[in-house]
Write a structure and sequence with these properties.
The chain is an alpha/beta fold. The chain has two domains: 11-150 and 331-353, Glycogen Phosphorylase B (Rossmann fold); 153-326, Rossmann fold (3-Layer(aba) Sandwich), CATH 3.40.50. 38% of the residues lie in helices and 16% in strands. The two termini are 36 Å apart.
């Protein structure tokens, strides 16, 4: 029997032209759309504002228009969308915004995003950090809600035994982009060359081919290229096996709003090492799931890695703490349920105010 969708608003998702790629934001979008559909009328439209005017979008009947934050770079297009769909509740789905990232300086991009934010009736974030940052940008607190990502069932269950490997495997699951800090991480690894380890890097190298080349060049210059395994993009259905073959997860990003890959790694019992930035610490909560170094402190990051690389029992303890913490992560179904309730409340508030 089909689900009763009459009680909720009709939702239109506007996604960027890269929505088919395997990124954390795109995975979040797809899983949420999948979770909403049994209960809500949902449509999805790829939108390239430079090519498709807002008036050309089919927004007819959409009560709520959810806009991926990559599209916030086009404030004029967002204003035109507001004019073309005056009855719609505009909600920004915030995966990343320059204006909430304290570790980058791009005033023009931040100004564009702030102008787009001014047109929004509400926003969804993936962490409390970003929620507070948007409130600081001027959105009222009741219009911003954190809806953390879910965790697929394939990442739950029995853990693999990792003790006894001669050369521990470091794993990073991240597309090769400057925000992920991979080039600078080579300098961290150089401090650890006296220890046995290999670094396994899973992610798309084509999104910024020049940056990927720079990472390779730095590895060769440091004499570390032979200790790195480049896998490229890994199919979602086999990604768990890469977590299970690793001993330690490292994400040297200069900023993260949440990090889906960190939550997946924790669910597979991997201790996590990275910088204490953005929403990343919220994944740990009060648990000792690994180690987070002060932002940009390469020496502290290397020290944390050195400790865990040299002590398999410490890795196991931190990995078990990460696994226990992951038990509190919601399923995607639960996350979609929270999103559905949030969108309904935002729409009701907009209707009441009009």
């Amino acid at each position: 029997m089909p689900a009763d969708r009459s009680s909720g608003p009709t939702v239109l998702f506007l996604v960027p032209d890269i929505h088919a790629l395997q990124t954390g934001g795109n995975v979040y979008n797809r899983r949420m759309i999948e979770g909403l559909r049994p209960h809500t009328d949902v449509r999805v439209r790829p939108w390239t504002p430079d090519e498709t005017p807002a008036g050309a979008l089919d927004c007819a009947g959409a009560d709520v228009i959810v806009i991926d934050s990559l599209l916030a770079q086009h404030p004029e297009a967002v204003r035109a969308l507001r004019a073309a769909c005056p009855g719609g509740t505009l909600v920004l789905l915030t995966h990343y915004l320059t204006c909430v990232d304290p570790y980058t300086a791009a005033p023009s991009a931040a100004a564009d995003e702030q102008a787009a934010l001014a047109e929004m009736d509400g926003a969804i974030t993936t962490s409390q950090y970003v929620r507070q940052a948007l409130v600081d940008e001027g959105l009222s607190a009741e219009r911003v809600a954190a809806v953390r990502p879910g965790l697929q069932a394939r990442y739950r269950g029995a853990l693999s035994l990792r003790l006894g490997r001669r050369a521990p495997r470091l794993l990073t699951v991240a597309n090769l982009l400057p925000t992920k800090g991979l080039r600078a991480f080579v300098d961290v690894l150089s401090r650890l060359r006296g220890l046995p380890w290999t670094w396994h890097l899973v992610g798309n190298r084509s999104l910024d081919a020049e940056y990927a080349t720079e990472v390779r060049r730095r590895l060769r210059a440091a004499g570390l290229a032979g200790r790195v395994v480049w896998t490229g993009v890994v199919a979602p259905e086999v990604l768990r096996s890469w977590y299970d073959r690793a001993d330690l997860f490292v994400l040297p990003s200069r900023f993260e709003t949440c990090s889906l890959s960190t939550r997946e790694a924790m669910a597979r019992g991997l201790p996590v090492v990275g910088y204490r930035v953005g929403g990343l610490p919220e994944n740990f909560g009060e648990s000792r799931a690994g180690a987070l170094a002060p932002p940009g402190n390469d020496r502290a990051l290397a020290a944390a890695l050195r400790t865990l690389l040299a002590d398999p029992l410490a890795r196991r303890r931190r990995g078990r703490a990460a696994w226990r913490r992951s038990q509190s992560f919601p399923t995607w179904g639960r996350a979609a349920q929270r999103l559905r309730k949030t969108l309904r409340a935002l729409h009701a508030r907009t209707v009441q105010a009009s």
